[in-house]
Amino acid sequence: MHTTPAPRIAVIGAGPGGLTCARILQRHGIAVTVHDRDAGPDARDQGGTLDLHADNGQIALREAGLLEEFFELARPEGQEMRQLDPAGTVLFHHVPEPDERFKPEIDRGQLRDLLLGSLRPGTVHWNHTLRSVDGPAEGPRRLHFTDGTTVEADLVVGADGAWSTVRRAVSPATPQYTGVSFLEAWFHDVTTRHPDIAELVGQGGAAAADGDRGLFAQRNSGDHIRVYLIQRVPADWITADGLTPQDTDGIRARLLERYRDWSPRLRRLITDNDGPYVDRPIFALPVPHTWKHDPTVTLLGDAAHLMPPLGVGVNLALLDACELALALVRHGTVGEAVRAYEKTMLPRSTETARLLDGAAADLLSTELPDFATADHH
Q1: pTM of the full predicted structure?
Q2: What is the strand order of the sheet 9-12 is part of?
Q3: What's the pLDDT score for residue 46?
Q4: Would strands 176-187 and 224-232 be described as parallel, antiparallel, or unpaired?
């Protein structure tokens, strides 16, 4: 008679990876709780748009039983891509076929809502910031939250992103600055308020670079466009210039100086934005990032393999989540499941991280990579 109690599985982080892992576990009748530091699902802007690829992200959504719902929300037309030179001349223009489904776009917020809506009520414990993980490696682990509560778990899944708290339980690694920084600018109601920019960007993305600076503009749903101004600068360049992130006019003056040789039409992507800029220095984990197997703690997504934002981050996180959940379904013990999962995940993420190591600088190259694959955070 089988009397082993069901393992207590705690996922830290309600991003796409953590929620996908929880959803697939629940589909197979395995109990799971998700803890997230946000006060609730609408606590903050979820970021821009993502492309989910047929060979990784979509595989996970199929396993989660959500692929058709994803296609109802996704924007296949978002696969359109333009590459321009700083004079504004179009160098390359890809228009997807009407039935092109290889990597359609979806807003991060829409993806998160789709995943949240698929979980049992009460699965996600909001306003739960993890402070530390302790307890013996063989378990049970104790999770200490900043509100003073403690939870016991037989498996802790770190899906808590770039600055993961769970990572510290298995690895001393911390993200390092890549030397490249993004500055995000927003444009709202673009059809009526910014028709020229809407036409320039099209239904997908538009990129330009001159070797030292670049920009990437990306259509989001709801008639929004996000623009990422890409520079090789110190991580603290705004304060080093005597400015604050709130000093929109001061930052804009610096940017206009830096992009002064660019065409007036492209410079409007710097000057006409609605609201402040958002400073996003790009960090990455050292390559390779591996750790000694621990039977009661594992990592997925950015917590395991933070890389520059070149179109793979969320796709790898979803694939990690899917493979970890299925390993837990198929193996007799948590430890065996974690070992099987890491045996595939670690070599795959190391191979990809090696390819992308230092590639943040490619975003500034005049020989642009296939920008159609960029997934910005």
Answers
A1: 0.90
A2: 124-125, 33-35, 9-12, 155-158, 297-299
A3: 61
A4: antiparallel
